[in-house]
Every structure is written in structure tokens, then in C-alpha cells.
């Protein structure tokens, strides 16, 4: 499982996904189908997201099955930016899909 911070045109999203990589074509297709074709992504260490979100993380994680594509952990940009520093995140990945 991965935790990813996506900076999208409509705002930041913190997601949990069962896909192993941001480069997984199935994950990119799911995002594109949700209207997210262009974004900057940062991997968030799973243990850090688990610690910062506590019970909410556990609730979202328990609904994520191996066959599920993703779950939104948070869509409140202000809260996401308050909870994580840039130096805690992975390197930025730029994605632009047609």
C-alpha cells in the first residue's frame, strides 16, 4: 500500500492506494477517470500518515482491499499542508496524461 499526496488543479488530495507504484497504468487510468490527469505527486511515508491521521487512517485503511484502486484519506488542503512538511515527503513526480 502507498500513501500519496496529489497536487491537482482542484486542490490537494491525500490518497491510499493498493497499487505499488505511481507509474502503474491502472492507477493512472483510475485517476484519469476521476478527472485527475495532470498532477504533482509526493509519496508520503505510510507510517507517518498513519501516525498523523490516527483512527481516521485506520478506518480508511480497513476499507482498502487488495482489489481496490484507491481511497481518499483527506481532501482538505489546509489540513494536509499543516500535517506534513515538504522535507518529510518523497521527491515530486510530475504527471500529465492526455
* Strands, count: 5
Domain module count = 1
Q: Runs with pLDDT <50, length 5+? A: none
* General form: globular
| C-alpha Rg (nearest Å) | 12 Å
Strand order, main sheet: write it out: 4-2-1-3-5
Proportion of β residues?
25-35%
What sequence of helices (H) and strands (E) makes up the elements? Answer: EEHEHEHE
Average pLDDT value?
90
Structural class determined from secondary elements: alpha+beta
Distance between the termini: 26 Å
Helix content: 25-40%
Largest β sheet strand count, sense and barrel closure: 5 strands, antiparallel
Q: Supply the number of helical segments.
A: 3
Protein name: Cytosolic protein
Organism: Bradyrhizobium neotropicale
Structure in words:
With 98 residues, the protein is an alpha+beta fold. The protein has one domain (2-96). 34% of the residues lie in helices and 31% in strands. It has three helices and five strands. It has a five-stranded antiparallel beta sheet with strand order 4-2-1-3-5, with helices on both faces. The longest helix is centred in the middle third of the chain and has 17 residues, at 46-62. It is globular and about 35 Å long. It starts with a strand and ends with a strand. This is Cytosolic protein. It comes from Bradyrhizobium neotropicale.
Amino acid at each position: 500500500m502507498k500513501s500519496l499526496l496529489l497536487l491537482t488543479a482542484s486542490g490537494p488530495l491525500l490518497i491510499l492506494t493498493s497499487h505499488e507504484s505511481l507509474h502503474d497504468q491502472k492507477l493512472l487510468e483510475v485517476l484519469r477517470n476521476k478527472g485527475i490527469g495532470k498532477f504533482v505527486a509526493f509519496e508520503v511515508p505510510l507510517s507517518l500518515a498513519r501516525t498523523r491521521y490516527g483512527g481516521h487512517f485506520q478506518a480508511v485503511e480497513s476499507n482498502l482491499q487488495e482489489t481496490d484502486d484507491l481511497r481518499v484519506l483527506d481532501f482538505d488542503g489546509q489540513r494536509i499542508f499543516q500535517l506534513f512538511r515538504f522535507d518529510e515527503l518523497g521527491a515530486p513526480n510530475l504527471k500529465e496524461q492526455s
